[in-house]
Amino acid sequence: MMLLTLLYSCIGGAALLYVLYRWVIPAVVQYHTGLALLWHDIIEERMLDMLTRSTRPQRLLHAVQKNATRGDPRSVINAIDQFCRHKEWAMNVGDEKGCILDSVVSEVNPSTVLELGTYCGYSTVRIARLLPPGAKFITLEFNPKVAKIARQVIAWAGLEDKIQLVEGASGDLIPKMKEQFGVETFDLVFLDHWKDRYLPDTKLMEECGLLKKGSILLADNVICPGTPDYLEYIRNSPRYKSQYFKSHLEYTKVEDGLEKSVFLG
Ligand SMILES: C[S@@+](CC[C@H](N)C(=O)[O-])C[C@H]1O[C@@H](n2cnc3c(N)ncnc32)[C@H](O)[C@@H]1O
User: Fold this and answer.
1) Which domain holds residue 194?
2) Residue 109 — very low, low, confident or very high, per pLDDT cuts 50/70/90?
3) Record-annotated residues binding substrate (predicted)?
4) For residue 157, is it within any domain?
């Protein structure tokens, strides 16, 4: 009898924990900036890493290999969005802001693109699939383990010939863009790396002459986690005309947005 009671308590406890983890906590945190990031980006990731003995990027890649069709970028994007909405949050630009990113890429129709922060290659695939033939697209990622996953995601989408993934820190690589990578200027730059690098890297791109009149900077996460120094600079500098696109932090209801800034020369 005692054993049976113990067994029922364990099953009940486990079920309660599962309901909390799967539904209650995500529902509560999705409206709160700090809690959403704390839960998804720190607690949930560490817990799942420990339990599954794998990393979030590895789990994301597995979802792509299981659910996406090889050579079909749209199905890769869908597989990642499904995984992140229903299984495990990840810091991709996401489906909602991704539509804004798509419309900017289509509008600019760039010949040269720089992405700062590849992570698992989600936004890289989104951008590359919309580029005109012959466009040069460089994406920078300084975490080699994540870059290895991104290469596999990009290859699964069949876009490896359209993307040059370079491993290293933006601050080291931006000054090498002209001589080492043969780029004169970028038509479009997507800033989505660590938020404290947006401003110094923008100033570095200016110093290195990588922006021309009409170049577009598109910056993610300007509200959450937020880039106050970058926004202050880009909105007040006479060298830019800037516009905010209101949206939500990927896969949540927390406000976030993209800042699109035209370099005026
Ligand atoms: C928010 S994630 C990028 C998400 C990706 N753009 C997407 O939407 O799928 C930020 C990535 O930038 C990388 N990163 C951060 N600072 C960097 C830097 N200074 N240079 C290169 N990569 C950086 C991180 O390792 C991380 O993988």
Assistant:
1) 94-263
2) very high
3) 195, 221, 250
4) yes
